[in-house]
Amino acid sequence: MEFHKVLAKYYHGWFRDAKDSAIYCSEKGDKIGAEKYSASADKYLDIILDNWDAIEFFSQGDNAFILDECLPKEWRGYK
Fold first, then answer.
1. Contact criterion met (CB below 8 Å) for 58 and 75
2. Which sequence spans correspond to the domains of the chain?
3. Distances 73 to 15, 20, 56, 67, 76 between C-alpha atoms, Å
């Protein structure tokens, strides 16, 4: 899984949803489901931690949709 600037505003929610689903599955005795959701949460957490500043920037307004050449230099090159 890799970071995409147009999805920036969703990563935190997806992480929370995956963690909540893992807990729910665990409480219901669904070990396989809990492991699956926990693995997804780990992937989202990695993306969040590796791209924290980019997520903050691209989550604001329409920043994720601004043409690359119009962005400040530090935010250019993201998919």
1. yes
2. 5-75
3. 29, 37, 16, 12, 5
